[in-house]
Each structure stands twice: as C-alpha cells, then as structure tokens.
Design goal:
- This protein has ten helices and no strands.
- The longest helix is centred in the last third of the chain and has 57 residues.
- It starts with 13 loop residues before the first helix and ends with a helix.
- It is rod-shaped, with a radius of gyration of 31 Å.
- Helices cover 77% and strands 0% of the residues.
- The chain has two domains: 109 residues, no CATH class; 96 residues, no CATH class.
- The protein is mostly helical and 231 residues long.
- Helix 1 runs antiparallel to helix 3 and helix 1 crosses helix 8.
C-alpha cells in the first residue's frame, strides 16, 4: 500500500473509536437539556450521530483487503492461462525450430515463468504477432489462427484483471485515507463533547461526571498540541 498522507489523531483502533462514540451518543441524548445550556442543541447531536453513522459505513480495511486478494487471485489465474497457451504454441514452434535459433528466439518467451505481469502481457502480444507472421511455416506442426485468437482473448482477460487489481489497490488506499480523515473529525467532536459533559456535571453529579472523564486525558493532550501549534 502507498504511504498514508494523513495520520490518526487517536491511538486506538477504529472499532474502539466507534464503540466510544456510540457510548457518548447515548450520554448526549440523555443529557440533551443540559447540553442545550452550552449551545449544543438537538441539531448538533443529530449531526454527531450522522458523523458516527458515516464513520461506521466506511468499509473496513479487512473488507477491502479481501476484495484486493480476490482481484489478485483472478489476475494470477488469468496470467496462468496466458502462460499455458504460450507454452502450447511454443511447444509447436520448438518442433520446427531449435530453441537457440533466431526464429525461435524471435517469439521472446525466454524465462516465461519469471516474467512480471507487464512483461507477460507484452510477451503474449509478441507471440501472437510473430505467430501470425510465421503461420505459413508452422502449420505443419499444428499452429493455426484459432490458437492465436485464443491467446489474444486470454491476454485481453489478463489485461482486464490487471486493471481491476490496480483499481482495488487504489480504492483501498483512498478508503484508508477517508477513514482516517473522518475518524479524526469524529475524535475531535468526541473530545469537545466530553469536555462539555465534564463542565456540566463537575461538582453536580459525580456519577455522570465520571462518565465523561473517559475523554479527559485525550482532551488535555489535544488542547496542549493545539496550543503549541499556535505558539
């Protein structure tokens, strides 16, 4: 994966962040009247609830990794089919020409098993091109146009599989970044709401005050960080 361009403001898992956000949401709804005295109205709480929902709706990295793995497997299967067809063609070419001859080497299939995906794709195109040029000389060993057409179709499927795999990788990178950005927004709101909850219940209701103390140390660290940046 590509290096993330954004970083988490929170140092625990997304699942833990979501769990804490849901707990806070319950508290906000219970204390809605008290929060209204601090300018945090029902609309603000509804916006926070939507933020929690949006965060939970983002696909997890496990889901996206699974899709990427499926795309990789399909790409590998497509590559294996291309190699199989190339070998079938080259077995026929080898019956006509020595493997070290120029006519054989013209097909460019040396180290077929070790070729990277882009090289394999180009190799298949070359085998088709050279094969068509050599059909008249290779018909007696069983090479024909339908075999070259079959390789062409397999190579097209391989190209599509390569694009799909690349798309899945990009989608995962983008989703990871979006999840971090949204998670940071949610975390910031949790810190603010948690501090207000403490201010409301400090010296009034110890049990309720302690429910909001979960965010105390995080809030203090965040405020210090912002203060240092401003200085």
């Amino acid at each position: 994966m590509k290096k993330q361009s954004v970083f988490r403001a929170y140092n625990y898992s997304d699942a833990q962040l979501f769990e804490q956000a849901m707990e806070l949401l319950i508290q906000l709804k219970e204390d809605q009247k008290e929060f209204a005295q601090y300018g945090i109205l029902s609309g603000h709480i509804a916006a926070f609830e939507q933020l929690v929902k949006d965060f939970s709706d983002i696909p997890t990295d496990e889901e996206l990794m699974g899709e990427q793995m499926v795309a990789t497997e399909k790409k590998q299967d497509a590559a294996a089919e291309v190699r199989r067809l190339i070998r079938g063609i080259m077995n026929r070419v080898g019956q006509k020409y020595h493997s070290k001859s120029g006519r054989y080497r013209k097909f460019g299939t040396s180290k077929l098993s070790d070729m990277s995906d882009p090289k394999l794709y180009l190799c298949a195109k070359r085998v088709i091109r050279v094969g068509q040029q050599s059909l008249a000389h290779l018909e007696d060993v069983g090479l024909n146009q339908p075999q070259l057409d079959e390789l062409h179709r397999a190579n097209q499927a391989f190209e599509l599989a390569l694009h799909i795999k690349a798309d899945r990788v990009s989608e995962r990178d983008i989703s990871v970044e979006n999840r971090v950005i949204l998670g940071n927004r949610l975390y910031e709101q949790m810190l603010k709401m948690g501090q207000v909850g403490k201010d409301i219940w400090q010296g009034v209701n110890t049990a309720k005050y302690e429910r909001y103390c979960t965010y105390e140390s995080s809030f203090i660290r965040e405020e210090k960080r912002k203060s240092q940046k401003e200085d």
